[in-house]
Specification:
Elements (H helix, E strand, L loop, with lengths): L7 H8 L4 H16 L5 H8 L5 H9 L5 H12 L5 E12 L9 E4 L11 E15 L7 E11 L2 H6 L7 H18 L3 E6 L6 H4 L7 E6 L5 E2 L23 H4 L7 E6 L3 E14 L2 E13 L6 E6 L6 H9 L3 H12 L10 H25 L18 H21 L6 H16 L2
Parallel strand pairs: 1-5, 5-6
Antiparallel strand pairs: 1-3, 2-3, 3-4, 6-11, 7-9, 8-9, 9-10, 10-11
Helix pairs in contact: 1-2, 2-3, 4-12, 5-12, 13-14
Amino acid sequence: MDVANSFVPVIQVLATVMSSPTADTFQTLVGGWLLAPHRTIQGMVRASGVDRHHSAFHRFFSDASWSIDRAGLAVFDLVTTSMQSVFLTVDDTLLSRSGLKVFGTGMHRDAVLSSRSHTVTRWGHCWIVVGVVFESRLVPGRTFSLPVMCRLYLNKKSADKWRRKYQTKNQLMLQMLRKLDAHAGKHGKTLHLLGDSAFTAPAVLNELPAGLHVTGRVGRDVRIHAPVVPKAKGSPGRPRRRGERMATPEQMLEQKRLPRLSIQLYHGANYVMRVATARGCFYKAPERQVLVIAVEHLKGGRGTEVFYTTDINADVETVLTRFSWRWSIEVTFHDCKGHLGIDEPQNRTTKAVRRTAALGFLLYSLIVWWHETTHDKPVEWIRDWAGKTAPSFTDMLAALRMETLQTTEQNISEHPPLPPPVTKFLNHLKKLLALAA
């Protein structure tokens, strides 16, 4: 099966970090990945229609000489071509797996099935993913989170079993952010991280690169201190690290006559809230000044929330809007699992496990980028539902499948004309593949 002509230049971005034979194998795998009903390696090989043994494609993940980090940086350069300030999202996701001999598997909390009062654990892989916030060029106001770097998290039992040094999720995130910051600095770009409280806790600020801004969420009882007043020259004693203790976010909201704010977030949802702000430093990060925003929702069940940003000159609406972009990475996880089947390949070895799912995340980024840059208008919807205002990833994938089939049909038609029964079968196959997206 031949990949769509318009998509070939896009996947060549990843081919630049591979040798020519490896790049050819990769392109064949992409064609199978797009069209296979089940995304096992064997399923991809069958869908691609090539006459090669499946072991060659297993070796692409387990033995071939190419770097998934270099591939991620290539995608980063592609999607940030016209960006000067790059917003990043970070979160973890669980990919369920089966088998005791699969590298890196363990019991992890399933955020989808769990709640605040009830925890559900499942056997599988936990991935830490960093994505670039990309605003749609075809549908203004719509944002995507395009994965560029991933790390496989091993819990303590799995690290001991596989004889690896245990690293926390935040340590893995910091590894990726430092690599991205060093790479972006070469091109004069600045980074701004958007994350939930698990990845943007005050203690993490001390470890982040100094030039990287952060917008996140903290607890209602977080300790805030005023910035340190410079010590007078010649005064005895050590200089203070922290200023005077300030009111907590809960105490800030106890004030009367606080301003009210009505704002639309998350693609049109309206929020009405009381807002209190303060500038200071966290107890665990006294070197970085932050703007703290305490929010009390006046309707709905969200209650009290506390946000902060190191961009202290930003206004409240800007900070809340930026934080709402973080939700796009949750949509990315949903689409990658449901429509690209990144948890289906049955790989067991170390390199294959670390590369396969990560490559699936990068493929998602390339498909969204292809839709946004090679089309003058959004693709036609395959499915419709109430309130739908823009094409979903399902529609993008269906459009790419249709173009892939058209490219394959054109290449076949260069030979003697196809019999009418075969043409009728191909037309029926196009409809089925589009609906199967």
